[in-house]
Amino acid sequence: MQKTVIALGFFDGIHIGHAALLKRTVEAAWQIGATPAMMTFDTHPDELIGDKAVPLLTSPEERASLVREMFGIDNIIVLRFDENLKNMPWEDFIDWLIEDFGAVRFVVGHDFRFGQRAEGDAEKLTAKIEEVRRTRDPRIGCDVIPAVTLNGVTVSSTQIRKLLLDGDLKSATDFLGHTHRLTDTVRFGYRLGRTIGAPTIN
To answer: What's the pTM?
Structure first.
């Protein structure tokens, strides 16, 4: 099985904080001769756990496209966040990634939480990996990336969503590190725009 270095997270928007994780993932994979990978979910966990809609910056397809384009990572793991995954103990989740995805190194943000009731965190993951290294596989490792700040503000998808809602595209772009993209299907409307010399895309 191909060895992989997996960046764990939701990665909505692929902002400059995510960039720190993904750059480290590529670097670590190159150092140990493994394949860099990014793991994300098809829906935001809060929608299942908190039963509330989360206005996302990017779809899974858009995340994958940005990561391939910006970081050259082709191995994108999109997990279906369902009841089974929601209720999976955090230790089982890590063992599953090691056994089924060939993970030999993980890269996470300082505030990453995972597993049943979000009981897994960066500290527990680090301890778990140390145990695996000691008892099963000396090759395995883990990197925890500290918070990335801009102008004294911690970069987060939540902050960027707020900036976009406030109409502050300049700041949102600075936090993203790239232009925000909107994608959708082009649909035909009533074609009234072309009658006044201003055809539009619906």
So the answer is: 0.86
